[in-house]
């Protein structure tokens, strides 16, 4: 399945990504053979009870990463090794080694012939065919790895056959209706991914970078450098588990300082304060991280159940929304994070949140019962006693798992649902009307996202694991309603 999709802005990726130097399998296994984990499990109970999270040795975190990397390498190599063994077996049969002693005595094993002739270069060898093929192959490989500034890049968080990974897709649009999509490279993940957030804050120094934060079933947040290929470990890990050990036949877990204690369900990058990342967790908390220092700078506990989604206001970057399974949406001001600015009760468990990119005071919340509600932050008191939704839309028959505002056309909202449909809504005058609907054959929809660069392209991911790109200008309702916002003609939908 595809659990999350996001677009990378055009030109943000390196033209030719670098190939990482991964640690060898032998080096990783050597670290594990040192027995650090086993020795750590022998610590007596008295010392165990006194150990603080902050005192956990850093080497344990390195071993955890090494273990994850080993697992990833084994998963990748397992298929290759199986194919290699089969090829070797076939090769041995062709050699017919059982009849080796029966070879005719007249055969000269080291005959003199054209094979003995040496030529200073391949170009001078008259018997060598297709002399330039190697160079052509190298050129083709470089061309395949090149990411042009005009290419659209989409990152999918995918789980397939118990292997979790990120897929970096290239979408090439020729402008004449023809398009091409392919996987540029992928990144193996140690845990099932649940959410992603792209960020351009350069953690390596300089102005801008190309990084992806990933939340998973684990309490850690991993930040991967998308400009590195064949990388086996994240550039940065926020929070997570330092060590797991047995105590009285039960597993005791030590978390890194200020870590979440459960799965990370939602992530939001602050585009204006670029070193700030917010996270929502099943541990009922919301955390704000400084990704440059790698530290948690604030933790809130304004919800009584799992927190599913977080979203920053792009006009007022200090305002943060969080939506929970406690059927409420909370807004806080980053300058006084421990105080609730406003709180809105909703009809069901919150699935997604989105600020209106064209209005600084409006947001929508999608819910488990198929309802989408719109709110105006200028209406309602801090305790929610006088809240009033701007609209209530029964959008789908099942949970509305994902929502996305169009960045170009005001009042155009996309909704994706576990009822396997994606719908487009015109929210003008706070009276929503459906202008298009499709079943993209992606199964239950888990994630949708409009492109900032091509605002009428909608990426869709679902339980069938197929990335879909919907060109919404191909829908008559969109073409009629939003004609003045569409710069290009109609184009077909694309899938992979």
UniProtKB/TrEMBL annotation:
Domain Anaphase-promoting complex subunit 4-like WD40: residue ranges: 256-313
Repeat positions for WD: 257-299, 393-435, 438-480
Pfam families associated with the record: ANAPC4_WD40, WD40
SUPFAM superfamilies tied to this protein: WD40 repeat-like (SSF50978)
Keyword set, alphabetical order: Phosphoprotein, Repeat, WD repeat
Top-level taxonomic group: Eukaryota
One GO cellular component term noted in the UniProt record for this chain: nucleus
Keyword Lipid metabolism: no
Record-annotated membrane-spanning stretches: none
Gene Ontology terms: biological process: rRNA processing
PANTHER family named in the record: PERIODIC TRYPTOPHAN PROTEIN 1 (PTHR14091), PERIODIC TRYPTOPHAN PROTEIN 1 HOMOLOG (PTHR14091:SF0)
Protein name: Anaphase-promoting complex subunit 4-like WD40 domain-containing protein
Organism: Dendrobium nobile
């Amino acid at each position: 399945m595809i659990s999350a999709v996001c677009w990378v802005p055009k030109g943000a990726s390196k033209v030719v990504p670098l190939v990482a130097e991964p640690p060898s399998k032998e080096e990783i296994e050597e670290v594990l053979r040192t027995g650090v984990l086993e020795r750590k499990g022998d610590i007596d109970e008295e010392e165990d009870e006194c150990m603080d999270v902050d005192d956990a040795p850093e080497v344990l975190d390195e071993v955890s990463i090494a273990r994850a990397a080993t697992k990833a390498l084994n998963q990748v190599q397992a298929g290759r090794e199986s194919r290699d063994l089969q090829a070797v077996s076939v090769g041995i049969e062709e050699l017919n080694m059982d009849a080796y002693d029966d070879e005719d005595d007249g055969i000269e094993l080291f005959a003199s012939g054209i094979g003995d002739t040496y030529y200073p270069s391949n170009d001078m060898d008259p018997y060598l065919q297709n002399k330039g093929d190697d160079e052509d192959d190298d050129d083709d490989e470089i061309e395949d790895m090149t990411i042009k500034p005009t290419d659209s890049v989409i990152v999918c968080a995918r789980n397939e056959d118990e292997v979790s990974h990120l897929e970096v897709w290239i979408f090439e649009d020729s402008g004449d209706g023809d398009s091409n999509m392919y996987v540029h490279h992928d990144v193996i993940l140690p845990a099932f991914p649940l959410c992603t957030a792209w960020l351009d804050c350069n953690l390596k120094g300089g102005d801008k970078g190309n990084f992806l934060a990933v939340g998973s079933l684990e309490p850690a947040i991993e930040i991967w450098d998308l400009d590195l290929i064949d990388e086996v470990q994240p550039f940065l890990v926020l929070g997570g588990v330092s060590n797991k050990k047995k105590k009285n036949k039960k597993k005791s877990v030590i978390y890194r300082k200020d870590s979440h204690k459960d799965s990370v369900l939602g992530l939001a990058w602050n585009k204006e304060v670029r070193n700030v990342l917010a996270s929502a967790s099943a541990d009922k908390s919301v955390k704000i991280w400084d990704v440059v220092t790698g530290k948690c700078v604030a933790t809130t506990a304004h919800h009584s159940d799992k927190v599913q989604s977080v979203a920053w206001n792009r006009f007022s970057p200090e305002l943060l929304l969080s939506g929970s399974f406690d059927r409420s949406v909370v807004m806080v001001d980053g300058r006084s994070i421990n105080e609730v600015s406003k709180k809105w009760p909703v009809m069901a468990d919150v699935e997604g949140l989105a600020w209106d990119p064209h209005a600084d005071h409006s947001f929508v919340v999608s819910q488990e019962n198929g309802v989408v509600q719109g709110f105006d932050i200028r209406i309602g008191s801090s305790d929610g006693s006088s809240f009033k939704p701007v609209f209530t839309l029964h959008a789908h028959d099942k949970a509305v798992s994902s929502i996305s505002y169009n960045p170009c056309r005001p009042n155009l909202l996309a909704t994706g649902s576990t009822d396997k449909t994606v719908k487009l809504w015109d929210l003008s005058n706070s009276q929503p009307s459906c202008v298009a609907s499709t079943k993209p054959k992606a199964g239950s929809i888990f994630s949708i996202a409009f492109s900032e660069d091509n605002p009428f392209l909608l990426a869709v991911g679902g339980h069938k694991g197929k990335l879909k790109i919907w060109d919404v200008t191909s829908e008559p309702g969109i073409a009629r309603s939003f004609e003045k916002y569409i710069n290009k003609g109609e184009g077909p939908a694309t899938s992979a």
